[in-house]
Each structure stands twice: as C-alpha cells, then as structure tokens.
Amino acid sequence: MLSLFLDEGVNRISIGAQSFDNSKLKRLGRLHDGPCALEAVAKARKIGFKNIGIDLIFGVWDDSFPAWKDDLRKAADLPITHISCYGLTYEQGAPIKECVKNGSIIPLLEDKAADMYNLAISYLADKGFAQYEISNFSRPGFCCKHNYAYWNNDPYTGLGPSAVSYADGVRRENIPDVAGYIDKVRSGLQPAGSSEKLSPEERAKETAAVKIRTMEGIGFDWFRKKTLFELPDLERKVLPKLIADGLIEQSKPGPAEQGVRLTRKGILFCDSVSSAFL
Question: Domain range holding 227?
C-alpha cells in the first residue's frame, strides 16, 4: 500500500503512532504497539518517503514526565520531518474506568498537562523541530502545507462520510452513513448532508480564529487582503482585552508586518483565544 501511494504521487505520509509505550497504547485502546509504530516509519522511509510525520498524545490520566520525554526522544531520533503533539481530550462517557469517579471523568491535572506541553516545545526545539502551530513541529522546510489551508481559511474539499468541505463562504458536511455515501456517489449525486452560508463578517472572524493558532500570528495587511476587513476594527473589543490578559501581543515596530500573535501564555490557552475572535 505504501508503494502504491508513492507511485501515485503521494509525497507526504503521517503515521498515527500516538506513543511508543505499549501500556499507554493499550490504555488508549490502540490496536498497535510501540515496535509496530517504529516499523511503520522504517518501512515508509525504506520505500522512499522523505517527508514523514507522526502524531503523539500527551495528558493521558496516569502519564509521567519520564514516559512522555521517552516518547519525544524516540520520535526525534526517527528519520522524520514532522511531529504533531496533541493533548488527550476527555469526554463524558469515555470508556476509561481508571479515571471515573462518582460518574465524572477525572482528567490529568491541567497544570501537569501544560508542563508536558511545554516540555515538548523546548525538547523538540533542541532537536531541530520548530513549532509553527499550536500542535505542530517540523524540521526546516517541512511545515504541513495541507493544514495551512485550514489555518488560512482557504477552500478545501472533504472526501468520505462526515467529511467537511469549504468554498466561497459555504461549509458543507457529507452524510455520515457509509452505505448511503457510497450509494450517492455511485448514483452521481452530491453526498452533502448539510450546509451553511457564512456572512463576510463571519468568514473574517473565523479566519482570525484559525490563523491565530500559528506562531506567526495574524498580519494586519494579510488579514485585510484576505477578508477585506481591518482586524483592529473588526475585533476592537476583543484585542485590547486579550492583550491586557497577556494572551496575545502586538508585533514590534520595524520591517516586519504589523499584527498580533500568541504569547507563551496564550499558546497554553489558544482555544480560549480562538473562541474570543468568533
């Protein structure tokens, strides 16, 4: 299958390793083990892929710093160009017996998860992986162009059940049923199940909400050309508060484009910052 992808022009592959710790993978309900993840990377490299990324998860309920650093070490030592680090999100009703008490999910303490995240930022930087977005790190020249389409709020097409497409301010979501999706495609029909039309202002606010996730932040000139709105005017109530709270900062005067970007504190509270723009 890997050879088929490469022969058909696929030049980047992302492998969902999640961890190299067998016990952690088992607790997460994954079907593979650590050696399997390492073997997948080795096979992809041997076949000819030069742009390989992996995903890692931190913040599992009994995660330890030594185990997390070991995952980071093994990842950084691999012949890969990209690493995504995601904090585990806990949902009510998740099948996790070890962290359920009185009917409520008990997540890892937020400050411990934040420390693990900060460890990833500093450790991966030392290993040559620069952070260019909240969850993503890459070697020079290997930022994910595909994901930048989302962060720039560019048009994209989603293929498959429940996939979302976005173009001309219209967001469409495919029907979730696999059999129904196949039937519609075979019949030459659009598999979209729902859609919504965003106003120009809604599109502009969404653009700010996703673009702020990048380490470069939002350039005012870029935003004006992209949305035809002035960000300081559009978010005149939000920007001063986020700056006062220490979550974003203005670009310094000079040759660089004026704009705003996340502070180190803001990186830890990015979801709150993004929501404030909407």
Answer: 211-272
Rounded Cα gap, residues 251 and 219, in angstroms? 9
- CA distance readout (Å), 127 to 76, 81, 121: 7, 11, 10
- For residue 278, is it within any domain? no
49 token code pair? 């892929």
CATH number, residue 237: 1.10.10.10
Residues 229 and 267 in one domain: yes
Q: Which residue has better confidence, 42 or 2?
A: 42
DSSP state of 96: -
One-letter amino acid of 139: R
Closest alpha carbon to 258 in 209, 222, 205, 212: 222
| pLDDT for position 101 | 41
Q: What is the dihedral of CA 212, 214, 218, 224, to 10 degrees?
A: -100
Closest CA to 71 of 116, 26, 137, 132: 116
User: Which DSSP string corresponds to 44-84?
Assistant: HHHHT--EEEEEEEE--TT--HHHHHHHHHHHHTSS-SEEE
Residue of higher predicted confidence among 109 and 260: 260
Distance of alpha carbon 82 from alpha carbon 131, whole angstroms: 10
What is the tens place of the pLDDT at every residue in 50-92? 999 999 999 887 788 999 999 999 999 999 999 999 998 766 5
Specify the number of domains making up the chain: 3
Give the tens place of pLDDT for each residue, 149-172: 999 999 999 999 999 999 999 999
